[in-house]
Amino acid sequence: MGSESECGKSEVVLGVDGGTTSTVCVCMPLLPFSDHLPDPLPILGRAAAGCSNYNSVGEDAAKDTLEKVMEEALSQSGVKRSAVRAVCLGVSGVNHLKDEERVLNWIRDFFPAHVKIYVHNDAVAALASGTMGKLHGCVLIAGTGSISFGFTEDGREARAAGAGPVLGDWGSGYGIASRGLTAVVRAHDGRGQQTMLTDHILDSLGLSSPDELIGWTYADPSWARIAALVPVVVSCAEAGDQVAIEILNNAVEELGSSVKAVVQRLSLAGEDGKGSFPVVMVGGVLEANRSWDVGREVINAILKTYSGACPIRPKVEPAIGAALVAWNSLMKELPANGHR
């Protein structure tokens, strides 16, 4: 990895994807304005760290994580902060203008005054990873948490879900896994039907009795720790367990309805509901590597209502999407699309 871009410039842009589970920053050279991006995109540096959602880990820890990944990505690239022209931070937990201002205030003093800083929800980075930096269409994220986020070409935006586990992100990894844990407890005390989830979850955690789940859960009820049990629920569904199948079907319904709500509010499918629009699919819950494919089922649910939906599985990671948003936003602000 070097400090010079393909066009001989040392100026760079940064993209940050700040999630509940991990945070990634990439450093890219400041590309010349063009309708066609190079393939593959030149990446000068990449760094990763832990959670940067301040609702989950607190403001100080979130700020430290963001600064750490940006500093490390710049170090790998061999450039200083003064070489940065623009930064886009897509951060989980940024839901309102006051959240954007909070993160902006953390980062403002980290860079020289000339650096353009754009702060969004992490869903924006995910959308841009599928549209290569263009903010148009809808993105569905289903990882530890879940959210649907949409943009129109004239700048309107809308979101559905994404309010965290307490307020019901039931299609998320946390939602699926927590319902799996609940099913085990209900089966154990007689309120629910027996399920394969009991033996499989206990085996995966090294526990001998459902009674031990209470201590395990509340010893560290972090969202990502619970969500890590999703593969157990999926494997039980693949084996025909009806309780696990119902949990996944409910998740599909929740995820599909969140996309439909965004599409309807923004009229992404046009007045007749048949227009085409991208739906970017991101997150471990949606990965197409299992016979019980949540992502495929969600796409089918969306297509039943909006036949013009165009599912996209991104070829680049969300942090690169964020870097492309920084680049696009900067190009729009610069006179005559120049670098100065």
Automatic annotation (TrEMBL):
<protein>
    <recommendedName>
        <fullName>N-acetyl-D-glucosamine kinase</fullName>
        <ecNumber>2.7.1.59</ecNumber>
    </recommendedName>
</protein>
<dbReference type="InterPro" id="IPR002731">
    <property type="entry name" value="ATPase_BadF"/>
</dbReference>
<dbReference type="Pfam" id="PF01869">
    <property type="entry name" value="BcrAD_BadFG"/>
</dbReference>
<dbReference type="InterPro" id="IPR043129">
    <property type="entry name" value="ATPase_NBD"/>
</dbReference>
<dbReference type="GO" id="GO:0045127">
    <property type="term" value="F:N-acetylglucosamine kinase activity"/>
</dbReference>
<dbReference type="InterPro" id="IPR052519">
    <property type="entry name" value="Euk-type_GlcNAc_Kinase"/>
</dbReference>
<feature type="domain" description="ATPase BadF/BadG/BcrA/BcrD type">
    <location>
        <begin position="14"/>
        <end position="326"/>
    </location>
</feature>
<comment type="similarity">
    <text>Belongs to the eukaryotic-type N-acetylglucosamine kinase family.</text>
</comment>
